[in-house]
Every structure is written in C-alpha cells, then in structure tokens.
Fold:
Amino acid sequence: MNLLIRLAGNFAEISIGASALILALLLAGRAVRKTYAAQWKYWVWLALAVRLLVPVHFEAPSPVIAIPAPQQTFTLAAPAPQSAVSVPDTVSEKDRGAYREKAESVPQQEGAGEVPLGTLLAMTWAAGAAGCLLWTVSSSVFLRRRLLRWSKAEPDGEVLRLFREECAAAGIEKGPRLMRCKKENSPMMIGLFHPALLLPHDSFSVGELRAVFRHELTHFHRRDLWYKLLLAVVCAVHWFNPLVWLMAREVNRDLELSCDEVALRGAKPAFRAEYGRAVLSVAQKGILRRSVLSTCFGSGKKELKRRLEMILDTKKKRRGAAALCIVLALTAACGAFIAYGTPSSGWKGNLAQQEPLARKLLQTRTEYIGDASAVGRVLGALPPLPDGLSQKEMFLQTSAEPYGLTVSYTARSDQTLSQADLAWAYRNAMLLLSLIQNVGRVTFQVTGPDYEMTFTYTQEQAMKLEQTDVRMLSQGESEMEKFLLELNGRGAEDFTKINGREISGLLTADEAWTALGKRLGASVQLMILREQKFGGADCYLFNQAESNQSPRENKRYALSKDGSALITIENSYPLMQNLESAGAASGSSGSKSGLSELREQIARAQETLKQAQAELEDRTKSGAADLSEQRKKVSEAEEALKKAQEEFNDRQTMLPAYTHHTDDAVESAVYQALGTFYSEPYASGNVVVSAPVIYGSFEENGGLRVFATVLSEEYELDGDALNPVSGSKMPMELRFLKDGTSWKPDGHTYAKDGSYFADSIRDFCAPHSGTAKKMLSDYGKNDPFLTQMKKNLQEYVAQSGIGAKYFHDGGQDYPIF
Structure:
C-alpha cells in the first residue's frame, strides 16, 4: 500500500509539473505551426507522453509548490474501541474516580475500520486508471471485431497493384492487409499486432488512392498505432488531469498533420492537389465513430481547415532543433519543483508546512506524566503511524524516577514489524520526550501475529543524539516547527549514514555488547549473532536463551548502531527460524536444538568451564583445604561442554567443497582466484560458496584486470536448509597474467573500509569510472548478489547431492530450486 501511495504521489507531482508545459504548448499552437514543421510537435508530444509515464522525478532543493500529504482518515466500519488508560501508581483510592472521568476525554485511536485519506486517494487513482485502460482496450477490441466482420480482402487487382507500388516506394516489405469494409466511410488502419488498412465500399480515383495509401502507410511505417496506445495509457494514468486529455486531443490532430507533412515531402503541385481532393472527398462522405487505437484518413470539420492549409503551404519550415532541446529539458524536469507529502532527507522545505502540526502538538504539551488524560491527548496529536500499525493502550510508570510511558501497538502483519521504517518510532518517541516534560523513558511495544518488538528511548539518549535538551524544543512554535522538519525529513538510514557514508561515533560490536549488558543487567547472558537490518536501520543482533527454554520462547535483542533504539523480540522463532531448532526440517519433533543453538550452548559451556577453572585456581592459591566443590563444578562444566560438542558433531553434516564449472575464461579465472581467498571455512565441515558479480574485465598491458563485488558465505546444512554462519561482501580488483590459454592470478586489491571506501574503488577501477560508479550503486542492493548466490547454490546442490531445499539470507528463507 505504501508503494501505491508513493506511486500516486509521484504521478501527481509529475502531472502538475507537466501541466504548465502542456498549457504553454497549447496556447502557442498557432505560432508554433507557422514557425516549425509539424514533425517538431510530433516529437515534443512523444517525449512528454513518455515522461508522464515515468514515476521518477528530480527533486529541486526548494520546491515552488508543496502539496502536504492528507492527514485525515475515513471510517469505513465501526470505530475502534476507546484506548485503555491506566491510573498512575501514586494516585490514592480516593482520587481514582477523578482519573476515570479524565480518561473519558482520551481520544480514540485509529482502528481497523479507519482508512487514511492518502490511502483512499491512492486507491481511487488506481481504480480510475484501471477503468480507463479497460474502457480503451474493450472499445478498441469491439470496434476491430465489428469492422473485420464486415470486411473482406481487396478483390480489385488494380487497387492491389497500386498498393504494392506505394509499399515499395515507402520501403515497406510487408505492409498491412488491404481490405474493403462495408461499414466504414473513411479509410482507416486498425490492429496493433496484425494491422489492416480498411477501404470504404465507395470507389476512389487513382490519385485519391495514392494519397490514401501514402498517408496510411506513413502511419504504419512510424508505428503510430503504438504511439496512440502510449497516449491512451498516459490518459489512463493521469485521468484526473483535464489538461492531459486536452493534450491527447491535440496530439491526435498533430499526428495527422505530421503524417500529411511526411507524405507530401518533396511532392509535386499536382500530387498536392490530388491529396487535397482526397481529403475533401472523404470529409464529404462523413466519418463513423473511431476507437482510440486506430488511424483515419478523414477529418472532422475543425481539423479539415488546418490540414488543407498545411497541404497548400509550401513554405520551408524550421526544424527547431534548439527549441526541441529546450522543451525536452523542460519535459525531463517535470515535477522537479513540486513536492508531495513528507519532505525527503535531502529537502529542507518550507517551515510553514509544519505550522499546523506544531501548533496542534504544542496545545497538548503537559508538565506531568501522571496526568493520564493529558498524555492521551499528546498521543492523539502525534503524526500518523505507518500503514498497518494501530495504537492499543498506554501504561504510566510514576512510582519512581525516571518516570516512564509505555504505549502498546498492534501490527496487522509480521512484515509490518520488520519492514516499517524505524524512523517512525524514533520520531514519535522524541516528540513524547519533548512534550511530556518529566518523562524519562518512552517504550513502544508492538505486537504482531507471531512475535513482538519493544523500542526503548530515554531522555539521556535524546540529549546525546539531538545535541540539546528536547524538552526545550516544545517551548515555542518556531522551535517545534524546526524540530518537526528535522524529524520528518529523517529516514532510518540517516541514523547510521549521511550521503551514503557511515557517520562517526557508531558503536562497535563490543561497545554494543557492553551497552546492552548495562541496560539489561548483569544477570542476562548475551551473545552477538550478526549485524541485522530492522526497519532500514543497521543493528547488532544478540541472543539470550536460558538452558530450560524452548527455542520458540527465546528473546532476541537488536541495538541500533547509533544506540538510539533497543528492540526486544519476543517469541523470536518466526523471525529467526534459521537460527533456531524447528525440528521439522529434519523430521524430528523439535526435541533437538538447531546447529546455531548448539554452537551457542558450546560457547556458554566454554565460558562456564573457564569461570569454574578460574575459581578453582583462586581457591588453590589461597590455600583452601577443601576444593571438592570447585573440582565438582569443573567436572560438571567439562561434561556439559563434551555433551554439547558431541551433539553438535552428531547433528553436523560434513559438506564437500564447492567447485564452479564454466566455459568462460574470465569467469573461470575469477573463481580460481577466489578459491585461494575464500575456499577454507572457519568451522570444519562447512562449505564456502562465493558469488561474484563481475562489473568489467579489461585486457591491458598484456594482463587482465577484473572488477567484481564478491559475496562469500560459509554455510552449514541444518536439515534441508543451508544456513550462513559467516560471510562478507567485498568490492575488489583482481589481476591476472596470461598462462598459455588461461589466466593466472597475479594479485588483487580490496576496497578500503570507512570513509575511504568509495575513493578506493574509484582508484583501483581507474580509468574505468563507469565501472566504479556501477559497483558503488549496486553495493547496497541485495538482488544481483542474491541471484548469483542462488545460481551457485543450485550448482553446488546438484553436484554434491546433499539434498538441501532452502538457503537463508537476510532474515528470509529462499527455495534453492
């Protein structure tokens, strides 16, 4: 739905931007006709039509027209129930009645029956576009069938001979079918894939037939029926814009004029006269209603005058190359100065856009977290939640400082939890910390069908991240407007990167482990699993599982690299099923742990043994007489470690090495080189599979240079799934020397980490700047590397026969075949 809303918004921006250009061309029609050839407008309209169908636009730093996204909602069913409001712990029994009265004023939250206005408008646009396309296609198909039913192949041999002559003169080897139609008074052409030129039942002179054939064959040669189809799609997509419909009517007129111009190019006065008589003759006989996808030699009375003027006008017209370039540039810029909805991170738009929301928020500002009614009003004034989320209830913690606010939400699907941009939680939390003056911690609990996430933010974090006391930003309207503009223009990626480069001060894995340990307490055992994206933000993913817990009950913790968001994932199995024991993959009942869990058990057993040995050593050094208890702990720890290692060895499948087969010399050389870098797994029994995406190979100075980004993953087999246990994605240059008929590796260069990353790629790719640009543009994408890895895993499973059916990547399972 978000994609549909964004698509509708983009088309609205482009439509409004193009309207000014359409209006200018329509108003300048007469002047343009006298100065430039008709072909000039033919190409201008075509470029504009194509531009109107490309839902991408260049965004100017300061848009001239800003269209705010609608904030209203429409209730399509019964409203959601009143949000539950808890009574603070400090309130006495005597005052609880007053709080219940105040609770009645807490605004109702968005329910499942409410549809945002933006969503409703996007759905209306999509339905209108589909309806217009359906009408165009159905009416054209109906007319084509009706006309062909009353048509037959041209029986007159002389007319056929004349038609073949005109086809040969136009350089057309296979022209349209020539047919006679009883139900049409004007020559016309129909059919996109199998075009047919229909002649009316009435007879024409030889000169008129030549004029008709030359005109319609010009349409055929230029594929004008496809031009008209493009125009019909434009009208469908922009059905809400009357100027686009006016443009379409003008294009159809200019299409015929430009066709006449081409047909008469270099013609003698006698043929021009015959051409004019043919146009008049057809006009006198009348014209039946035509479909959108057809051409017609005849004209209406309004167009007839313009066509005759063009036929009689023999003055040389300007080609207008410079003017055409200017118009094309304006066409490409359509929508650049129009902005719809929330500003993007690259636009610091007009502060006036934030005034209504800033004023509304400031009206709800409250000094105390203990006023449940006031807190409810603050929640009701916050910007809309992501599509698929709705507020459920709130809880106040006022028994001790720091005072806390917990808000629970319901997610329509698990995808909403993992895919919704994390920026919404940060934005709303910062606003709550600003507007509720004595709140110290804000927690959002989001519950989906299968698992939960908890986001936690504090005043200390807000101070660090915003470099100011956010409570002061709600003291005045101008400060709140600027604060809103900054928050609304920020996406999840902005918390870790600026213009694609990682910002300084981000947590390392060890720092994140320490910070998370402080938040959760020393009693929580943590183990870092890997880096993971949640809602577009880069996070470190940790595991915490007690020995007596089922894998389905385990918690996961994700801490964003900037430390702004702590995400607690309850019942993490549906999200992290590749790291847990499902049992189903191997046909068991789930009593055995998965390989990842067993690996964690081994690590915990090693840590327990280490602590027991250290305790025994300390007791021995202190001269203690009785060491039996410490020796027992060491023995138990050694036994637990041995048991975990044995179970892991029993479950682990020893995988053969991967060998890539190809007839391509360059590709073969690359895989041979990668075999020396990545072939050995860190853990015995696993397999390393490399998937290089090659961006360019160049033979220079007797050698070969290859530029590629290599995704390399170490896999273990768990049941019928290949799970990655380590991996990397690295842009690199590989160098080779000729060795007989093949290439021998001669060195390589990796891209540097940190701020030197992009520069180092440009350096080792020089002078092939285009290759470097493509390599950098693809680095943050997943598709090219995932596709190549899937191909290589298909090859590996086929050659090894290990029976794997799935492989895991980025939190999802993918079928190998």
User: Anything to note?
Assistant: The chain has a mean pLDDT of 77. The chain has four domains: 2-62+123-332, 351-584, 595-651, 665-815. Residues 691 and 789 are 5 Å apart (CA to CA).
